């Protein structure tokens, strides 16, 4: 025998019923079937509403009953051929009249008892099971109808009756013994007490009926047919990548269901669990899907975590006080006070200091709980031995569930590490000794992020989603967007990384799209964006509260450099090629580093020196591994190197500078390059990374630029350079005559930094440096004879964008 249960959605329409019947007729080929059915979806709620309206004296309950009647008659008309309809139509009509009679009674007395309500509810399943039985008969399928009220025997606890298993099992087995047909249809949810009065089995009732029957008749398996393809690794409404769990143990299923996976209601599987009967969760609307099997053995596929779940609307109650330490009985009195108010405790934690006990309850009961507990401890509160109960609301629980988490070190470390990196504060933690469940209490606003973060962390097949907010879409920014678009698919396939640009900003507009901005049309998206400042942009990033978020600064703006602390405090990583933050007064640079450290968040700015060259990373690796830097000598301006490599007096100096700007090597304001400020910033950043507390004023700058060129606007700067052509040609000619090349060199030694134009002799390490290349020489303890040399293109949109890209990837692995 097999037992198949079809829930409300699976019998919610004539089409769904047809699909369910086809499934049954296919399965019956292997084994006889008991089919347990729910009421048509929504009927029980409608009946409840009728009773409430009637009890409240609202005559509109009649219209609702008319709708219920019409729906069921319509189903008969669609499922049964016209010649066979009449007797069923009148049977359904009679049952619906009984509903109306009952509601009229409720209307007259102005109240509804649980007993009457159970009677009223019973009509939903009675009518649906009768219609489905008749529909099978119309298909010429031999079928019997069992009246659950005669077979499932309960006590008289109306609304949530307790099953008399001894009598029920006997009755079911006797009925099975006498059964002639290969198929039985029976209503779920309903039963009766010893006096034949209708009762109902409480929440998850039809599942429970099916499990009771399956256990009583020793069914080969129980199948729960519903509208999802099985139990999922997480709630699919929150986690796009949630997967169906192919197999799960009873205990895991109970834990997951308890924590909100609404596919089954935990107590319902107890009867089949006791007998080791497998339970399948299958989808009526996609019967070909494999579904989930719930069975005795945990499924050993190596995954320690089976699923992630949550409970919302939690309140945390904390009882604290020095008077509690070492005194027995405090927890007993706390729980007694809650129990007296019928308040269920969902979670309990107590620190070993015994200074506080913390329990989680449904938020709905929090105020009642506070009143009850404060009352119970009035005396201790007045003596200040305990504090009045502390109540925190707007909390949720997220839980990892898995049989094999037991004795598997590292799971909780991974869990809390991932939450911490994403700025999810954990308010309380609970783990039972079964180690089947690790629960963390967090703010409700963080639940979606937390579940997604954990899903990415524990389910390898899941793509890790990285959410980018990019400010600055000029020369470098637009190239980064191009590179991101080009690499998106590669990263999905080879690194299981999904990079999505959620926000874009320039100096005028901002745009957000939580599904990811289409990178082939980002310009139009930004044009159609809204006017907004960088503060609005940052606010948008913070409010979205997405996981694995990276803010990318590709501007040259001081205002943008000023918002990093706001982001780091919210665990949003910052990647910057803008050098302003790291070359701001030392205190700001230091505070950013501290923020990144304190909030365990990435702050990466490799492109601040040498564009895409690995300069800062190399320096940090040297220092972390214990090397000591004595001297840094470097050519750090791509622009100046380009200019002095191309200037030979045949074309004006100003023209070569303009070419450097057109090729994208200069700063947005090229005077920063020509005046040496850009190089000062870079050597200062290197010095700071090497541990020196340097400020810009501490750096000597032997500028070669005539003062007059640095006045006025950028156009004035170009004009004045033309006037000063002689000055530039003289510098060039003198160096040439001595067989030297001109390089703008930065040095850092003995705590002092200097920048300036130098003539470099042939044979010097800096001599052979072409195009827009940079070079950095690190003279260290370990690189004593020959310096460690880093050399290559040090400016340009493409290389800079790829350096920013690499920092983004590093930030996501942080
Ligand atoms: N070009 C290169 O080789 C390298 C450049 N960098 C740095 O890259 C940064 C960007 O340079 P480019 O792309 O050449 O500059 P750009 O002038 O072409 O683009 C700057 C972008 O920033 C936006 N922006 C300015 N103020 C803003 C604000 N308050 N809020 C939002 N957006 C704002 C502008 O609208 C524009 O989209 C600079 O900080 C530069 O130092 C770093 C290394 C190498
Ligand atoms: N303007 C800079 C670009 C990199 O920081 C340069 O010319 O080096």
From TrEMBL:
InterPro entries, per database record: AceGlu_kinase-like_sf, ACT-like_dom_sf, ACT_Aspartokinase, ACT_dom, AK-HD, Asp/Glu/Uridylate_kinase, Asp/hSer_DH_NAD-bd, Asp_kinase
Residue ranges of every copy of the ACT domain listed in the record: 400-478
Keywords assigned by UniProt, alphabetized: Amino-acid biosynthesis, ATP-binding, Kinase, Lysine biosynthesis, Metal-binding, Methionine biosynthesis, Multifunctional enzyme, NAD, NADP, Nucleotide-binding, Oxidoreductase, Sodium, Threonine biosynthesis, Transferase
Catalysed reactions listed for this entry: L-aspartate + ATP = 4-phospho-L-aspartate + ADP; L-homoserine + NAD(+) = L-aspartate 4-semialdehyde + NADH + H(+); L-homoserine + NADP(+) = L-aspartate 4-semialdehyde + NADPH + H(+)
GO BP, one annotated term: methionine biosynthetic process
Entry similarity comment: In the C-terminal section; belongs to the homoserine dehydrogenase family.
Assembly mode: Homotetramer.
Protein name (record): Aspartokinase/homoserine dehydrogenase ThrA
Organism annotation: Flavihumibacter petaseus NBRC 106054
């Amino acid at each position: 025998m097999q037992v198949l249960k079809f829930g409300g959605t699976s019998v919610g329409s004539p089409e769904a019923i047809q699909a369910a019947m086809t499934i049954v007729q296919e399965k019956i080929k292997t084994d006889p079937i008991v089919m347990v059915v729910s009421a048509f979806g929504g009927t029980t709620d409608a009946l409840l509403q009728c009773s409430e309206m009637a009890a409240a004296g609202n005559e509109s309950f009649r219209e609702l009953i008319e709708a219920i009647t019409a729906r069921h008659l319509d189903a008969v008309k669609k499922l049964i051929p016209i010649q066979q309809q009449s007797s069923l139509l009148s049977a359904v009509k009679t049952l619906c009249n009984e509903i109306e009679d009952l509601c009229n009674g409720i209307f007259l007395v102005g109240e509804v008892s649980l007993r009457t309500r159970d009677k009223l509810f019973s009509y939903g399943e009675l009518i649906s099971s009768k219609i489905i039985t008749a529909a099978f008969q119309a298909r010429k399928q031999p079928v019997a109808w069992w009246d659950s009220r005669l077979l499932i025997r309960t006590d008289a606890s109306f609304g949530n009756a307790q099953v008399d298993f001894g009598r029920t099992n006997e009755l079911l087995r006797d009925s099975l013994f006498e059964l002639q047909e290969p198929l039985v249809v029976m209503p779920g949810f309903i039963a009766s007490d010893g006096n034949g009065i209708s009762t109902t089995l409480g929440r998850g009732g039809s599942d429970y009926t099916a499990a009771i029957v399956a256990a009583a008749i020793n069914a080969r398996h129980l199948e729960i047919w519903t509208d999802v393809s099985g139990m999922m690794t997480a709630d699919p409404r929150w986690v796009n990548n949630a997967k169906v769990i192919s197999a799960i143990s009873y205990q895991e299923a109970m834990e997951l269901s308890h924590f909100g996976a609404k596919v089954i209601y935990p107590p319902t599987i107890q009867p089949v669990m006791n007998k080791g009967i497998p339970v399948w969760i299958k989808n009526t609307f996609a019967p070909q899907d494999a579904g989930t099997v719930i069975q005795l053995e945990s499924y050993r596929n190596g995954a320690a975590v089976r699923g992630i779940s949550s409970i919302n609307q939690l309140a945390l109650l904390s009882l604290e006080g020095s008077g509690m330490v070492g005194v027995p009985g405090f927890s007993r009195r706390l729980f007694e006070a809650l129990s007296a108010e019928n308040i269920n405790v969902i979670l309990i934690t107590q620190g070993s200091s015994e200074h506080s006990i913390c329990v989680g309850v449904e938020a709905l009961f929090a105020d009642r709980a506070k009143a009850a507990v404060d009352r119970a401890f009035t005396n201790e509160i007045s003596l200040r031995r305990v504090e009045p109960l502390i109540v925190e609301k707007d909390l949720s629980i997220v839980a990892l569930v898995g049989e094999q988490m037991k004795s598997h070190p590292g799971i909780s470390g991974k869990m809390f590490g991932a939450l911490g990196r994403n700025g999810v504060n954990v308010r309380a933690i609970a783990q039972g000794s079964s180690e089947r469940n690790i629960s963390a209490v967090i703010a409700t606003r963080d639940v979606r992020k937390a579940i997604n973060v954990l899903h990415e962390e524990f389910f390898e097949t899941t793509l890790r989603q990285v959410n980018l907010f990019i400010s600055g879409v000029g020369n470098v920014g637009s190239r980064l967007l191009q590179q991101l678009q080009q690499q998106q698919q590669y990263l999905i396939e080879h690194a299981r990384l999904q990079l999505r640009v959620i926000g874009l900003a320039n100096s005028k507009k901002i745009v957000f799209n939580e599904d990811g901005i289409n990178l082939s049309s980002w310009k139009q998206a930004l044009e159609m964006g809204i006017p907004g400042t960088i503060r609005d942009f940052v606010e948008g990033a913070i409010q979205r509260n997405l996981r694995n978020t990276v803010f990318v600064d590709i501007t040259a703006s001081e205002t943008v450099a000023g918002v990093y602390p706001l982001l780091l405090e919210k665990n949003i990583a910052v990647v910057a090629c803008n050098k302003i933050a790291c070359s701001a007064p030392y205190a700001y640079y230091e505070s950013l580093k501290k923020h990144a450290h304190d909030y365990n968040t990435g702050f990466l700015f490799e492109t601040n020196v040498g564009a895409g060259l690995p300069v800062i990373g190399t320096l940090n690796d040297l220092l972390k591994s214990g090397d000591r830097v004595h001297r840094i000598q470097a050519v750090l301006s791509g622009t100046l190197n380009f200019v002095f490599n191309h200037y030979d007096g045949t074309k004006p100096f100003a023209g070569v500078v303009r070419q450097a700007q057109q090729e994208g090597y200069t700063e947005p304001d090229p005077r920063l390059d020509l005046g040496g400020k850009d190089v000062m910033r870079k050597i200062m950043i290197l010095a700071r990374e090497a541990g020196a507390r340097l400020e810009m004023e501490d750096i000597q700058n032997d500028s070669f630029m005539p003062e007059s060129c640095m006045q006025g606007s950028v156009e004035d700067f170009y004009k004045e350079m033309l006037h000063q052509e002689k000055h530039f040609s003289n510098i060039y000619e003198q160096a040439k005559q001595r067989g030297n090349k001109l390089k703008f060199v930065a040095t850092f030694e003995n705590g002092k930094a200097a920048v300036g134009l130098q003539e470099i002799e042939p044979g010097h390490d800096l001599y052979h440096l072409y195009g827009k290349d940079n070079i950095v020489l690190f003279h260290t303890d370990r690189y004593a004879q020959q310096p460690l040399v880093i050399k290559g293109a040090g400016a340009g949109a493409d290389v800079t964008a790829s350096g920013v890209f690499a920092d983004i990837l590093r930030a996501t692995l942080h």
